[in-house]
Amino acid sequence: MRVITGTARGRRLAELPGLDTRPTTGRVKEGLFSAIQFDIEGRRVLDLFAGTGQLGIECLSRGAAFCDFVDSAPAALKVVRRNVEACSLGDRAAFHGKDYAAFLSRARESYGIVFLDPPYGSGNLERALEQIAAIDIVAGNGIIVCESPVEHILPELPGPYEKGGEYRYGKIKVTLYRKCV
After folding, report:
1. Which pLDDT belongs to residue 67?
2. How many helices (H) does the chain have, and how many strands (E)?
């Protein structure tokens, strides 16, 4: 697993041992960043189920202003911190060892990009989407990026959020929501 492009291009990222964390595959990551490449620079990013931190790190490497990495697993957050530091991006990152709902309940920032890639089948994707729309932490024209199994149907969100493109990569689907303001 490597950073695709930007200031940390080619940097190898550490992974968590075992099967508890499912890193986004290279093919999915390349497709996803191709779809949002012009929406990254200068944005504040939220990597809500950070895992290894690779999605937030990719954004920082491509010029995002800041990234909040959130994961409730201490081992995952340790790997995220190590990966961010290895890429020399620590001055634009914060690490939060909290459950996603606890983090969102106290969120005061506005985010240009929000990544949601929770464990499949947990129901956390829908709950996080609902909570994000309710507290409205996405900046104008911001994007929510969701990764799920291809057969998983994600809900519509109330305005001003619009469900946009869905991209399929084998058994994985990436769904984009945009806040249209």
Report:
1. 98
2. 5, 7
Contacts of 125 (CB under 8 A, 6+ apart): 116, 118, 146, 148, 152, 154
Indicate the domain borders of the chain.
26-179
47 vs 111, 115, 181, CA distance in Å?
10, 5, 22
Give the pLDDT confidence of 146-179 residue by residue, as tens digits: 999 999 999 999 999 999 889 999 999 999 999 9
**How far apart, in whole angstroms, are the C-alpha atoms of residue 93 and residue 100?**
17
Q: Are 44 and 63 in contact (CB under 8 A)?
A: no
pLDDT digits (tens, 9 = 90+) for 37-56: 999 999 999 999 999 999 99
The highest-level CATH class for domain 26-179 is: alpha beta
**Cα–Cα distance for residue pair 81/147, rounded to 1 Å:** 22
140 pLDDT more than 60: yes
Closest CA to 89 of 126, 118, 60: 60
Q: How far apart are CA 127 and CA 124, in angstroms?
A: 5
> Residue 20 has what pLDDT?
57
